Amino acid sequence: LGHGSGGAMTQRLLTDYIQPLFNNTWISQAHDSATLPWNTDRLVFTTDSFVVTPLFFPGGNIGELAVYGTVNDLAMAGAEPKFLSCGLILEEGLPMVTLKRVLQSMAKAAQSTGVMLVTGDTKVVERGKGDGIYINTSGVGQQISQWPIEPGRICRGDVILLSGDIGRHGIAVMASREGLEFESNLTSDCAPLNRAVAELIQAGVEIHCLRDLTRGGLATALVELAESCGKTFSLDESRIPVSEAVEGACEILGLDPLYVANEGRFVAFVPESSSKLATSILRGTVAGSLCEIIGRVGDGDHPQVALKNSLGCDRLLQRLPGEQLPRIC
Amino acid sequence: MATERRHIEIAGLVQGVGFRPFVYRQAEHFQLKGWVANHSGGLHIEVQGNSREIETFIDKLSSDKPPYSRIIRIESHPVPLQAEYGFRILPSVWDSSCSTLVLPDLAPCDDCLKELSDPKNRRYGYPFISCTLCGPRYSIIDKLPYDRANTSMQPFPLCGKCLGEYRDPLNRRFHSEPNACLECGPQLRLCSSSGDTVADSEQALYRALDAIAKGKIVALKGVGGFQLLADAVNGNALAELRRRKRRPHKPFALLYDELKNVCRDCCVSDLEARLLSARERPIVLLEAKDESCTSIHHLVAPNLTNLGVMLPASPLHYLLARHYGTPLVATSGNLAEEPICTDNDEAFERLGKIADCFLVHSRRILRPLDDSVLRVVNNRPLMLRRARGYAPLPITLPQHAEDRKLGRDTLLALGADLKNTVALSHSGWAYPSQHIGDLGSANSLSHFNRTIGDLTNLQRCQPDKLIHDLHPGYTSYRWALKQKTARIGVQHHVAHLFSCMAEHAHSGPALGICWDGTGYDCSGVVRGGEFLHWDGRSPVTHLASFRTFPLPGGEKAVREPRRSAAGLLYEISGFVALQHQDLKRCFTRRERQNLVTMLKGEINSPQCSSVGRLFDAVSALLGLTTRMSFEGQAAMALEQCARGVSSKDSYPFNLAKKDGRWELDWAPCISALIYDENKSLPQRAAAFHNTLAQMALAVALKHGEKNVFLSGGVFQNKRLTETITALLQAQGFSVHCHSEVPPNDGGIALGQIHYAHCMQAAGQPLGEVPP
Ligand SMILES: [Fe+3]
Ligand SMILES: [Mg+2]
Ligand SMILES: [Zn+2]
Ligand SMILES: [Zn+2]
């Protein structure tokens, strides 16, 4: 518990664990705040907190998640992520090796995405009052697109691109937490998205809107976007990539992959004229290798997301009301 | 003899039923002068003449009124004499906000049928023959008053002969709005699956019949929408239809040419015969005779002995059925649970991959109306799906709703999300819409919006309040949130109870046995085995419920009875239950492992008290149905399995107080049932039905309320409903079942309205939420 008291132990945590990993001018100063150089007119700022059980899951851990999550939120606004802060809330009794592993992957994730962790804070809570580690990260980035990328810019006729197969993160975490066993091994899709976005922008793709898929899955993200822009989206179910492993797991669990969480997938709204270019660029990136055009923005002027199935029926997607309760009477 | 003049106003079902010609003939007969006119409030008449003759004339209006018309009220008062030279039919008056009733679509009358098959008649073989007593109505009405210009007959100007009939007060077609003939009326056309015309009129009909005979699937533009026709004897054609429609098991309806041929294949009681021949022409569920296996192919209703049968609902259906001779399959022309197609182009597009050709015509269908479905239970008709032939007729609400204070509010009830219907209440009447379907699809949602528009436009009123179910996942609930109207939430099973009460004009103390699949009640439990009590004054109380069990996989379990079975046994004996032989054969080893993990970890495994799922579980445990391809499949299989068993044997169960209400524990019954080696499968199925009936009786006896109402989808089960009724009646209870609206969720909207009225009358708060 002493590690969070602000005394010598906190100092040791910083010098022994954090500084060696995040070696940069600002963190080495160990000052109260980081004074950062800034010379563009558009600063993009976001924050997110990360809670996950288990801390390590197939394909990732809470440390990576905390870096990628905030980096991805910045990327979705068309920004190049620059600096991160990190707040750690540790539960008393957390093995130091676990902490070290988490911090190591944070460092690696930061390095791979080109973002610098420049300030942070640590608190320790009593045993039983936290799930090992909670992490908060905030991030600032620099807008690299010529115009703001936001739901209000979504236009009729826009093509909706999905960067890859859905549902892996939610299922992988649940399977390892609950001890479920599925036919094939399943890993989280946890990944950074900033490179893929930067490439789209640099190639001159006219991006109207981006959104990363997190809790609530693809369906919730699209319903939210349709509501904020007041437009009708039509999707083609057969074009939405779902891995066999996720499909099989959802089949047993009775879950709909459209509503399962992701941590490294996003949708992009681009005009028809840019869709070919966008697809080919995305397919060349790590995060977007399985990219598909899954639908488009229709003529309707009421917020609605319709999913056409193989029979030709349009099913309307909804936000999940808490848990999935059966409707069938 | 005194001469006087009277103004008469008639309210009720008096437009489109031949009322004006009837009035005209009566007036002529009594030598009265004056006029008659359709009015937005019904019918207005002024007659002048001998006062005694006028009295008799007014009596005749009620006593000799045209068949199918309904009079709510006749009022008359004297007015000053005027110069009059005869009796005239005046143009319709349409000015006030009062309502009138719109007629449903009616099957051809005997006179029209005679003409249809009379080679000397000028309408011989004309598929759109009709008169003032029969023909299309709701499917062609755009708006009121019911005049040709306001119907989809508007593009067909009457030819000289037809106009003569239309103007001749003594003719059966006097002011018959859909009047037409081969010269001037709608025409038949046969189109390829891409929509190109390949034949016209008679040729179109013959070539369509030819195609069916060759095993093809023909899309027919029927009364309320498209149907898909195939030869009911041709297994290949049926297999193809099932493949293309992706409907492996759900039974198809059959179209017969005449009653005597139905009787050849099915057992038909007098009541069933009457229902089949009624002007509404519903599909009636009948028990197939065993020997009928020879003529009707088993793919019509795989593994089921009940057949859905109908007689021709239009002249076009008559021509097809008569010429074809053997029964035809006639199933709705839609994709899965969507509304049926009504428009030619829409049908070409949506059904193009299912039908080989399209028999269409040039009269537009203005709204989709599915075929209605009935079944006889307790020797009374039980509605299963209310649409064509019944919609948009209202249901009279109990007296107190006519109370000016209560009747003033126009309520729009939004129903439930599956088998959705909506209902509007207005001056003492409830207008339930036709069956709309599952609101999960974009097409159903627009049908829902249009239907609400239809009801409010025809009644010329806007709702003051909306009533919705409490389920937060319902589309209808979300729809209500978006409106700028005050809203009231009513719990699902409360709505079921009041729906049944409304039908029996009951607004006093009642015991509700509400058994179905899923109803939301804020407790987190998927409810469906509920006993409710209303004392006639206070809020409704929840008297008893079934013991809960988990549904691993949530909504998935609704489609897979094997999951309900797993949850049921897990509730009794924990994870060892998954080793039970009846379950072992339904799952792979890994599936069972994961199910145990899900059940232990409570992962997507909501608790349920649902009798619907209990039926599913037993059906799976008896090896009848482990997965379903259509709703109700497992319960139907279980009901059918018990066929022919008359034993009253039942299994044990417990009834005990738990948390202030009675809990029915099915565990002793299930334990006995799965190890019951002494009984045959049918005997076990029958004993399960009997046990449920004993459970219902046990709760009713604990409470004592004499008026018992059975509602919820489970009561589509004839055996169960009849067993419970008999058992309760023998103990002095009055048992009430549904008849006019379905016991399933199709009846929810009516119940929502009646509940609001009853609570208002009792001075109970409705928990209104302002917009
Ligand atoms: Fe229900
Ligand atoms: Mg985020
Ligand atoms: Zn007729
Ligand atoms: Zn004519």
From TrEMBL, chain B:
Presence of keyword Cell inner membrane: no
Pathways involved: Protein modification; [NiFe] hydrogenase maturation
Top-level taxon: Bacteria
InterPro entries to which the protein is assigned, alphabetical: Acylphosphatase-like_dom (IPR001792), Acylphosphatase-like_dom_sf (IPR036046), Acylphosphatase_CS (IPR017968), ATPase_NBD (IPR043129), Carbamoyltrans_HypF-like (IPR051060), Carbamoyltransferase_HypF (IPR004421), DHBP_synth_RibB-like_a/b_dom (IPR017945), HypF_C (IPR041440)
PROSITE patterns: ACYLPHOSPHATASE_1 (PS00150), ACYLPHOSPHATASE_3 (PS51160), YRDC (PS51163)
Record-linked SUPFAM superfamilies: Actin-like ATPase domain (SSF53067), Acylphosphatase/BLUF domain-like (SSF54975), YrdC/RibB (SSF55821)
Pfam (any one): zf-HYPF
Alphabetically ordered keywords of this record: Hydrolase, Ligase, Metal-binding, Zinc, Zinc-finger
YrdC-like domain residues: 202-389
Metal-binding keyword on record: yes
Catalytic reaction list: an acyl phosphate + H2O = a carboxylate + phosphate + H(+); C-terminal L-cysteinyl-[HypE protein] + carbamoyl phosphate + ATP + H2O = C-terminal S-carboxamide-L-cysteinyl-[HypE protein] + AMP + phosphate + diphosphate + H(+)
EC numbers for this chain: 6.2.-.-
Biological process, per Gene Ontology: protein maturation
Positions of the Acylphosphatase-like domain: 5-91
Residues annotated as catalytic: R20, N38
An example Gene Ontology molecular-function term: carboxyl- or carbamoyltransferase activity
Similarity annotation: Belongs to the carbamoyltransferase HypF family.
Role, per record: Involved in the maturation of [NiFe] hydrogenases. Along with HypE, it catalyzes the synthesis of the CN ligands of the active site iron of [NiFe]-hydrogenases. HypF functions as a carbamoyl transferase using carbamoylphosphate as a substrate and transferring the carboxamido moiety in an ATP-dependent reaction to the thiolate of the C-terminal cysteine of HypE yielding a protein-S-carboxamide.
Protein name as annotated: Carbamoyltransferase HypF
Gene name of this polypeptide: hypF
